[in-house]
Amino acid sequence: MTQKLDDQIAYMPNEAALPRANGELVFEEPWEGRAFGVVVSMHQGDLYEWDEFRDRLIAEIADVEKTGADSSYYQQWLKSMESLVIDKGLITKEEIETRAELFASDDYDDHER
Question: What are phi and psi of 25, to 5 degrees?
Answer without folding.
Answer: -60, 145
